[in-house]
Each structure stands twice: as C-alpha cells, then as structure tokens.
Amino acid sequence: MSRKRKLSRKHKVVASIGAVAMVAGIAAVTVSSSQAATESCAGLDTALQNNQNFIAAQQANPDAQSEARIANRQAVVDLIQQRREAAGCQ
After folding, report:
1. Tens-digit pLDDT profile for residues 32-61
2. In this structure, what DSSP letter does residue 46 have?
3. Burial class (CB in 10 A: 0-12, 13-18, 19+), 8
4. Mapping DSSP to helix (H, G, I), strand (E, B) and coil, where does residue 79 land?
5. In sequence order, which residues have a C-beta less than 8 Å from that of residue 15 and are 6 or more positions away?
6. Residue 65 φ/ψ, nearest 5 degrees
7. Which of 6, 25, 36, 89 could form a Cys-Cys staple with 84, CB 3.0–4.6 A?
8. For the chain, percent of residues with pLDDT exceeding 70
9. Per-domain boundaries in the chain
C-alpha cells in the first residue's frame, strides 16, 4: 500500500517563492548577457566623446562644482571604456 505525501500550505508557498526567485534570476542573467552581446560600439563611442567634451568644458571654465563633476564624469568614462572593451570595440 503506497502512501502519498501531501505538502502543507506553508511548504507550497515556500516552493512557489523559490521557483519565482529562480525564474527571476535566470531572466536577469539572460538579459544582462544579451545586452552585452548587442552593445553598440557607435553608441559607446558617442557617449565617450560626449563625456570627454563635458570634462574639457569643465576644465576650460571651472566653477566651485567642477572638480566633483569632472570626477563623476571620469568614472563614467572609465565604465564606458570597460563596456567598449567587453563589446570588442576598437
């Protein structure tokens, strides 16, 4: 005689939450990897140039906030360079 084991309501909720979390994790990894694969070198080059132009303008006409703005934009430039490298841009 076989005995069927029934899951309690609490176990069903926990199992459902685990399944949803797993699906969300898979979706996040898929989106991030597909985004990197379709990165536009032209778009990255434009973003890089815009940030470099902004830094040059701040250096040419500095004000009280220029140093902070330049540091912020330099961090953005560094990230863009990393994305360009990952995308295989020349």
Report:
1. 555 555 689 999 999 999 999 999 999 999
2. H
3. exposed
4. helix
5. 7
6. -100, 0
7. 89
8. 63
9. 7-38, 40-90
